[in-house]
């Protein structure tokens, strides 16, 4: 089987593996930014872990959004008109805030209350939440293939990339 351009069509599952691989690279880059900033803010700026986690999250957020918009969940592969839009930014931000809330709760409970090592807590938490972020990012935040219509029958009004 070949594509219209005459290139061999990707084998089933190959695209998903590529997407997961790119997600891991982009997420890894954002996670390294998050971890590095958090550790610096705790160990050098003497902030409490929950405070450092907020600053680190805000630094990692644009790395994650732009990387996933342009590289992981590309517009072409996910039915969107453009890589970056208000709709994807809104959904991604909401998803990121949910992930951050889970992350923050984990830091407070495991590092602050239970006294477990901060670095280990941060690392384990970031990895655990990444799986949730992948699934919800793929199925919701960056998914442009919607077939619903608005009450007046205007399908474009509910398009994720509509202005």
TrEMBL record:
This is Putative flippase GtrA. PANTHER family: PROPHAGE BACTOPRENOL-LINKED GLUCOSE TRANSLOCASE HOMOLOG. It comes from Aureimonas pseudogalii. One of its GO terms (cellular component) is plasma membrane. The keyword Methyltransferase does not apply. Residues 23-142 form the GtrA/DPMS transmembrane domain. Belongs to the GtrA family. GO terms for biological process: polysaccharide biosynthetic process. The lineage of its organism: Bacteria, Pseudomonadati, Pseudomonadota, Alphaproteobacteria, Hyphomicrobiales. Keywords: Membrane, Transmembrane, Transmembrane helix. It is a multi-pass membrane protein. The chain crosses the membrane at residues 20-42, 54-73, 94-114, 120-141. It is found in: Membrane.
